[in-house]
Amino acid sequence: xxxxxxxxxxxxxxxxxxxxxxxxxxxxxxxxxxxxxxxxxxxxxxxxxxxxxxxxxxxxxxxxxxxxxxxxxxxxxxxxxxxxxxxxxxxxxxxxxxxxxxxxxxxxxxxxxxxxxxxxxxxxxxxxxxxxxxxxxxxxxxxxx
Length: 145
What we know:
Blueprint: H1 3-12, H2 17-24, H3 28-35, H4 41-90, H5 97-103, E1 108-111, E2 116-119, E3 133-135
Helix pairs in contact: 2-3
């Protein structure tokens, strides 16, 4: 094995030991043994280690920043939903049909012919305050089509 080629690949081309071993078709321990002959090897190894630690720290910081931003967005959505619920409940203590249906949407099925949400009796007995069916405008609930 040519020692100068290994030196060039590692110090000038900045290839990893595994990459050099793959190119030369030898074991990585062989490449490592050759590199240990050079006095600058330990210094370069430490430099690469610090560079990798720095890159990993930057990645972790960016990940935390994105996670924090995502959590804040989810919290804002929850607060908005809460404000909407409070607003709808505070009106004379009675919920509108639209709000009731939003809260119980899983108990309704969409009837395409009549373009209505119809209460599904298999979900249980329908409470008196829930309407049997509600007209749905074509643009409102596209997910039921």
